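INFO batch 0412 | record 1 of 1 | parsing
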Amino acid sequence: MAERKRQPARRTARVPGAASKKVASIRWMPDVSQSGELFLRRTDQPETGAVEDMRYPFSQGLTFVARRWRNLMNEELRAVNQSQARWGVLYWITVFGDTVNQTELADRIGVEQPTLGRVLRDLEAEGLITRSSGSGDRRAKVIRFTAAAKPLMRQINSIQERVRAQLLDGIAPKDLAVCMAVFAKILSNLDRS
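INFO prediction complete | emitting tokens
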């Protein structure tokens, strides 16, 4: 019979005069206040070493932070009569240039066609974009910025840079790199499902 490798014993914190206890770690757990506001609450939980110990608080924390970031961006973007959703569409139009149509844009940014259609209709009504027939399929409308969109995009970029600097203040680049690696793995897992 093959021998199992012995795992080193976990260290425990000892309190003089008390029985030994496992080390408790501080965890941040999402919670909801009586008024319905989301927040993170510190809790002491015994560390068991199980992966499941961190999966729930991590996933809840990730969605919590994303929601709060989005809410702050929406508050700030109101100053220029925009929203996070509209800014996201404008941003991706900038990234893809004058060659993307509505179907491709919806696929690339991961939103449903009707949702994107409403945002594009509003942006077009405000004179920020145009939709015109492309060279191939006349039904596929190519999306282009108008001259009015350029100064707005400068304002929006200034707002998002300020918010990003505020929210990432004090976080080391190496920590951000670890987060990006985790996000990449999560996206890879999503693509496999």
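INFO post-check: The CA atoms of residues 101 and 108 lie 11 Å apart.
INFO record closed
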